[in-house]
Amino acid sequence: MKKIIKNILYLVLVVLFSSGGVFAQEKIKIGLLVPLTGKNSEIGQSIIKATRLAINQINNLSIEIIPKDTGSNPEMTLRSAKELDKLGIKIVIGPVFNENLIYLEELNQLTFLSLTNKSNNKSKNIINAGINATSQLNAIKKFIELNRIKKTIFLTPDVNYKNEVAQAISISKIKIKESYIYNIDPTKLTKQIEKITNYKKRKQNLEDEIKRLEESDESNKEQLIKKLNKIDTLGSVEFDSVIIADFDESLKSVTTSLLYTDITPKEIYFITFNQWFDESLLKETSSQPLYFPSINKKNYKDFSSEYFEKFNQYPNQLSFLSFDLVGLIYYLILQNDSVIDEKIFYKKNLFRGKVGIFEIKNNKINHILNFYKVENEQFKKVF
Length: 383
What we know:
Blueprint: H1 2-17, E1 28-34, H2 41-58, E2 63-69, H3 74-86, E3 91-93, E4 111-114, E5 126-128, H4 133-146, E6 152-157, H5 162-172, E7 178-182, H6 186-196, H7 199-214, H8 221-228, E8 241-244, H9 248-260, E9 269-272, E10 290-294, H10 297-311, H11 317-335, E11 349-352, E12 357-361, E13 364-368, E14 370-375, E15 378-381
Parallel strand pairs: 1-2, 1-3, 3-4, 4-5, 6-7, 6-8, 8-9, 9-10
Antiparallel strand pairs: 10-14, 11-12, 12-13, 14-15
Helix pairs in contact: 1-11, 2-11, 4-5, 6-9, 7-8
């Protein structure tokens, strides 16, 4: 495996720093479908800037990015895609949002690398290039196996991506003891967590044991009672790790509910999905260590610094991904004997970008992710 990755890295370096080569005589036109007007226009502008950085690093004047506006609207997206088609473009980065994909299947001569992390698309000409749930669960599965975790429960919020998570659990073949769908309303959530963790029974066990000791003749009962009064429950739970498929304040509500029911990350592994190094998690010390899969943190930091130095503003996460997609397309075209067609995404291939390793096969993209933990108010790499 190390030898394969080393060879890939060498090829990528050749690709990214060559200054002409096989494409000196012919333009490589890559379409870009992003919102340039409307409420999401800042996202689109950031993506355009990231693709410019990528072209500068590749240093090949034959590459040309042709952006078109989606306006975050499916109909406008289709019109712009047709304009790219008339220009003879075969590969398009974008659109950004999943709902803008609905009419693009009819343009089957174009291949779209959508930036969405949804994996529910079945159109042959649309490849979802975002960091999907399956990629994340593959990394979590690796962590579970490395740490010999045996009894994992899975918590998914009752929101629109719950079916996607269920599908990812099946595809990744991660071993789950029990899976639960929870209500994101904090009051209802706490009651659900109490039931999942058998909180009332464990609470009652403690009260019963204290009462038993009080009524007993044991010589050291006062010392034992004093010790029991320092804990909240008595008795173990039937799981050794919990995966929480949630983000932001909703994630914090779940960890808070677990803590309330006397489930702590010191005894039970708290694992979640890609948090993009959300710094607000550093302050949640009671929920640490918290584990999650993610992109390469060092590369993300370096890219953000380079982007800021160039444009005097920080990039968004989608622009980071877009940067890599330019290099990925260029690399795959080289691997396909300079032929630009849909077949380049069918062959099994690996590409090391700044995000991490892209795994391409059968018109699908998965990411081989790194793994991190939040501990002592720091993000620490696990693998």
